[in-house]
Specification:
Four copies of one chain form a homotetramer. With about 150 residues, chain A is an alpha+beta fold. Chain A has helices at about 10-20, 25-30, 60-75, and strands at about 30-35, 40-45, 80-95, 100-110, 115-125, 130-145. In chain A, about 20% of the residues lie in helices and about 45% in strands. Chain A has a six-stranded antiparallel sheet with strand order 1-2-4-5-6-3. The interface of A and B includes residues 52, 61 and 95 of A.
Chain lengths: ~150, ~150, ~150, ~150
């Protein structure tokens, strides 16, 4: 894996504050976990209020946590005064999203000046056992904090 | 656009019943709109509880409605005894998702025996004006109702 | 469809000259067809030297023509002094790529200052009949001619 | 990484024979390298006849080798009597594809009965140094050898 040095040493604080402003995360019940250079984890317990018609976690909710994990992974490597937005992502849903809890892990693969490419995955846990339920490949963009996109 | 003939004439009832079981839709505030062969619309009013850190609709919530619109568009063309699951999708977020309300439109491009390819879009409305905020290209799979995937 | 006004009135000449420098196109036998604001066509006759193991056009060759069609569609709307590069694309292969000839059509969906989102398709022709064999959703980037990326 | 056991012990022979029938590979100058359960490498020397307008390897050619690497990685795990086809893939082009030679590596992430999800990458080599130039996430399908898709 590549080694990264965040240009803003306070990246973790900045990300936790940003995450607290993502009301969608509160609504679905997600919390932010580990944050390190180029990698962010998001945790989500299973709950009846975020499922599709078969009782699996809705694919869009799976996407919501792994998109944020990838976006914040990219954000760990952006300088002060930056915002991060998702340009696009692709998600494969590999197994029905069933389990007690889910962990989304976003990792930076290539950090450019403007665009950052990330890889993400979502694991479903039942007790100590985990299963890969989704795989994401995403492109994130850095925009200037003051300039609206 | 291709013309489609649903193998199950009661496809609309079946889809409305399935949609009512998607608790994620109630949680975010989405309702199902138009349903016709190979095309389904989902409506979502803007709300403070489904945003990301900048006050835009979270990209994962944008994905949630257009994934369901595409999945149900595919489902209009599946025979009785089928379930539909998302295999994978790719979403481009083209403009910040800001507006009074959003409409996701899913359309079938190619319906195969097992796999269906769909195209989806999300429009943001402010009064009568609309703007394209997201574009999806998705693969859906038909699975037998009795067999767990 | 959106209406576009190219900032460089000589966009067609500029694109034909650029296409002539794509040696990969000569190698596979592709030629450029219609060029208009936000839309470019590329033609490819079937040939034994560009197939996969079953005698279908190789998915990578299908991608080659529709990537160039999308890239040049984006390029029609870029100012003088720009180069265009593919950031990423996603392709669905919907039917085996068999036919006498193929046409790739790239269209701009949203042209931004830096990024352009395109939609592409590849049609296979047998006599007068055509079939959709591939669908692309792509992100292109404008880079300054002088600055190497 | 997951451990895989190929159901057909002669998978390597079967893949080398199939690769020899991919005329597109001869045309671009690619050869097949390492083949092991769930992983296949394809080698391509740089050549003037497979470039785009800036002298980089054409994104479609980059895709051609990594699509075949992923398809054959999936094929290592398919039983006798199967064919493999690409359902869809997404590719990020992360750096200009410049170098003396390129290696595409395809790996199986999840092998299902019908669908297999793969991850692929393309490395550009200049002497002993390598750089990641492309990342693929792909879905492959197993079809019965006798049944045309």
């Amino acid at each position: 894996m590549p080694q990264f040095t965040p240009p803003d040493p306070n990246y973790e604080t900045r990300i936790r504050e940003s995450f607290d402003q993502q009301s969608a995360m509160k609504t679905i019940g997600a919390t932010i976990g580990e944050i390190k250079p180029g990698e962010v984890h998001i945790n989500l317990p299973y709950s009846d209020h975020i499922t599709q018609q078969d009782g699996f976690l809705h694919a869009g909710i799976v996407t919501t946590i792994v998109d944020s994990a990838c976006g914040y992974a990219a954000y760990t490597l952006m300088p002060l005064g930056s915002r991060v937005l998702s340009v696009e992502f692709k998600v494969n849903l590999m197994s029905p999203a069933i389990g007690e809890r889910f962990v989304a892990i976003g990792k930076v693969i290539k950090a450019g000046r403007t665009l950052t490419v990330c890889s993400g995955e979502v694991l479903a846990f039942q007790g100590d056992e985990s299963k890969l339920v989704a795989l994401m490949q995403a492109t994130m963009i850095r925009v200037d904090e003051k300039i609206s996109s």
